[in-house]
Task: inverse folding
DNA sequence: AGAATAAGATACGCGCCGTATCTTATCCGC
DNA sequence: GCGGATAAGATACGGCGCGTATCTTATTCT
């Protein structure tokens, strides 16, 4: 008979099975259908093993999502401001789409306020930093005016995209993303950086 | 002995007791702590009575909130664009504040998508229509340029305020509201309506 | 080797779900 | 007023997931 019959998983192997099971349950049953019991069954483990790691359903889901869905990074800035912004926003939008609005809403509702903020912030700080860098580059290149752009302005598109997706439940179309960019964001950047002629073109 | 001992409530009286109990539970235990059983107990009625009226917890809470939190109205447009927008935003913000982010997040997570959208749209005085009217007035008065402002631009502050409150969990301060207005919205309106000099005051 | 650690199995009481059944107070039309 | 329709209210049900406690046993570290 096989001597290694009752092989017992640990650490990464186990953790990975848990995350996988969680994501599968998430996909099949939606956020509210994710259950400690269900995940334990599916990952062929037991509830205590889960409870030893995660204090709540929300944390479990969050961990699984983070493990499999790293934050989007902007791979190669071309130096062309509009193109870079567009690809950044698209990456964001794709991430939202993969996750689904239901998951994020569920997390938002069930995570403690503090934790939800951290999490959102982690996502948006990265973006904030990226945006800041892109804009700084464009200013240095003379594509924008010389003045510093206020943070509130810098973060506008994050808020707009999130709102569209989370509140209204639609994944922004390419056209919408471009609209935000051309009608709102780029004009604001030009204006606040003090670029030459904000009018025609 | 009193002949009207087992007085049995109906219609408004009953409904009102249900709403009151729901709001009380909401306040004490938060959205996720609201329970059909708990509300029934507190309203001194029974679960079937509740289930005959509301199909889900979210609908129960929604009804209670709507019953006790009617829409604020924008009292008097002064014709002064900035002042009117400011008071509109403040009213909006005050409403969110009374409700609390947790409740809205819970509703968003548990209501079906369609219903959530209706509710968000209907529940807000800071509507597209209101903004459109104010801006149209300002344009007619020559306070802005003559051109029509695109919808995406018109709705910007709705998204920004909601994002701030719901995602980040903070009630926007007066200063933040003014920032949105002065750094983002008014400039955009001037720009898109084709107002004369968008630069230094 | 032995000790420490953590996986895994099982079982518990609890609270809430959503529904079915039944009684009985109240309302409405005649 | 009376009598039938209506809906409140009480109760009970099986089911499920929660969160925890207890115990055994495989694995790893020293």
Result:
């Amino acid at each position: 008979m096989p001597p290694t019959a009752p092989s017992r998983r640990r650490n990464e192997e186990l953790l990975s099975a848990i995350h996988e099971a969680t994501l599968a349950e998430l996909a099949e049953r939606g956020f509210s259908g994710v259950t400690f019991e269900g995940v334990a069954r599916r990952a062929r483990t037991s509830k205590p093993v889960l409870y030893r790691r995660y204090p709540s359903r929300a944390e479990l889901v969050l961990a699984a999502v983070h493990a499999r869905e790293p934050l989007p990074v902007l791979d190669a800035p071309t130096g062309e401001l509009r193109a870079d912004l567009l690809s950044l926003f698209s990456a964001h939008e794709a991430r939202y789409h993969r996750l689904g609005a239901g998951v994020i809403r569920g997390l938002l509702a069930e995570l403690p306020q503090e934790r939800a903020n951290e999490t959102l912030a982690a996502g948006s700080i990265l973006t904030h930093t990226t945006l800041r860098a892109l804009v700084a580059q464009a200013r240095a290149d003379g594509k924008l005016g010389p003045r510093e752009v206020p943070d509130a302005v810098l973060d506008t598109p994050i808020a707009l995209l999130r709102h569209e997706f989370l509140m209204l439940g639609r994944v922004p179309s390419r056209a919408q993303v471009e609209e935000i960019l051309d009608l709102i964001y780029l004009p604001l950047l030009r204006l606040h950086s003090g670029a030459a002629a904000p009018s025609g073109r």
